[in-house]
């Protein structure tokens, strides 16, 4: 099933490097074209000739050796890769990649590729649990890198704990599932012909030219929804507050907004043309009643800022809903179901996605979310902790089902 797929396998210098031989062998037997890049340290554990024999391709291990072809090898390999797999990945490699260090053939090629990069860590459990390593892994995940989490067990050093390279059969299964999901993305265009508007990120309400009121929204949930909707064939309009996320390439239109008033104006301008509106932006409920065009100077006393109510955008859209599908979000810290349920009728929503911000792995700045979806008829569907891309598909599946029932 991996015929015509080019997989670049990066091998770093850990004792688990020998297991990469089995991974390469299994992937080759599935029909993949394998190119192996080894670090200098990896060659201390496995001879390059082993990988060369298993892959039937030259092994690259030196940036400055005489090239096998008249191409810039790290660029050509980066372009050719359908998938880039690092197995095993040491703490050193993860740290270099997370901090933009490209000082050998593997890190250079990894940074030059636009293909999906998948990392299978293997190291001592104390190293794996080191907060610096955890932070580097979290940073790479935020950039879109995928990880095959290590297993727990007896390590080569004699310790017992997390850090053991995942079983080679499971690594190969992950690769197979990845290409299967790509195929499903290509085949599944159930939202083709629909125009979907997604709001994302925070709003910013200015106090003066220096200060403002905002919230902790990262925009990750909204961007995941926009990306998945586009992958499933929809024409996606993304209205976004300021975030640090790269905008999805497949968008029909991208509009950056700042304040709740900006969002209201832009969403009304696009609303009539849309079939579905998914409101995942964290919109400020209040704004300063009076904006100062000069910086407010510090005084000896307290500063009182009077706030006025912003428009409830979701409620305003509910009034002019028509046949459109409207989806709302409720990020709560208490009485989650009760608070979210009240919003459905008030805002004329088809369903609302509720999450408890007090739960670990849910809410702002996380790659995961834990949600409950409440329907207009009061039905509640609970989901375990999922990646936000997976939550996005759950939401879009429900949207597609509602649209099917309306036909």
Automatic annotation (TrEMBL):
Catalytic activity: N-[(R)-4-phosphopantothenoyl]-L-cysteine + H(+) = (R)-4'-phosphopantetheine + CO2; (R)-4'-phosphopantothenate + L-cysteine + CTP = N-[(R)-4-phosphopantothenoyl]-L-cysteine + CMP + diphosphate + H(+)
Cofactor(s) recorded in Swiss-Prot or TrEMBL: FMN; Mg(2+)
Keyword Transport among record annotations: no
Domain Flavoprotein: 5-176
Keyword Transferase appears in the UniProt entry: no
Protein task: Catalyzes two steps in the biosynthesis of coenzyme A. In the first step cysteine is conjugated to 4'-phosphopantothenate to form 4-phosphopantothenoylcysteine, in the latter compound is decarboxylated to form 4'-phosphopantotheine. Catalyzes two sequential steps in the biosynthesis of coenzyme A. In the first step cysteine is conjugated to 4'-phosphopantothenate to form 4-phosphopantothenoylcysteine. In the second step the latter compound is decarboxylated to form 4'-phosphopantotheine.
Protein's name according to its UniProt entry: Coenzyme A biosynthesis bifunctional protein CoaBC
Organism field: Peptostreptococcus russellii
Gene transcribed to yield this protein: coaBC
């Amino acid at each position: 099933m991996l015929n015509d797929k080019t997989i670049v396998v990066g091998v770093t210098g850990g004792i688990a490097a020998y297991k990469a031989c089995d991974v390469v062998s299994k992937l080759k037997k599935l029909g993949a074209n394998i190119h192996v890049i080894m670090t200098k340290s990896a060659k201390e554990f496995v001879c390059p000739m082993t990988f060369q024999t298993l892959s039937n391709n030259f092994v690259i291990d030196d940036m400055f050796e005489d090239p096998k072809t008249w191409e810039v090898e790290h660029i050509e390999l980066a372009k050719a890769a359908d998938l880039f797999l690092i197995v095993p990945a040491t703490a050193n490699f993860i740290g270099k990649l997370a901090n933009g260090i490209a000082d050998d053939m593997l890190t250079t090629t990894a940074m030059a590729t636009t293909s999906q990069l998948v990392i299978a860590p293997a190291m001592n459990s104390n190293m794996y649990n080191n907060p610096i390593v955890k932070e580097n892994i979290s940073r790479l995940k935020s950039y879109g890198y995928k990880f095959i989490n290590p297993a727990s067990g007896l390590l080569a050093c004699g310790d017992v704990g997390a850090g053991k390279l995942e079983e080679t059969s499971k690594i190969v299964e992950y690769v197979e599932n990845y290409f299967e999901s790509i195929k499903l993305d290509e085949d599944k265009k159930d939202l083709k012909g629909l125009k979907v508007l997604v709001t994302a990120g925070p709003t910013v309400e200015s106090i003066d030219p220096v200060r403002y009121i905002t919230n902790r929204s990262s925009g990750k949930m909204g961007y995941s929804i926009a990306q998945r909707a586009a992958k499933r064939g929809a024409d996606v309009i993304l209205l976004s507050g300021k975030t640090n996320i790269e905008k999805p390439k497949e968008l029909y239109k991208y509009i950056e907004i700042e304040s709740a008033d900006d969002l209201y104006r832009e969403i009304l301008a696009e609303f009539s043309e849309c079939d579905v509106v998914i409101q995942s932006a964290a919109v400020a409920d209040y704004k300063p009643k009076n904006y100062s065009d000069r910086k407010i100077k510090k005084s000896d006393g307290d500063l009182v800022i009077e706030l006025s109510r912003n428009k409830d955008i979701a409620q305003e859209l509910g009034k002019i809903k028509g046949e459109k599908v409207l989806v709302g979000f409720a990020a709560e810290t208490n009485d989650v179901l009760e608070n979210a349920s009240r919003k459905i009728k008030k805002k004329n929503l088809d369903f609302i996605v509720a999450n408890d911000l007090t739960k670990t792995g849910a809410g702002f700045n996380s790659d995961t979310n834990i949600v409950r979806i409440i329907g207009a008829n009061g039905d509640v569907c609970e989901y375990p902790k999922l990646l936000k891309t997976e939550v996005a598909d759950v939401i879009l599946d429900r949207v597609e089902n509602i649209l099917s029932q309306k036909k």
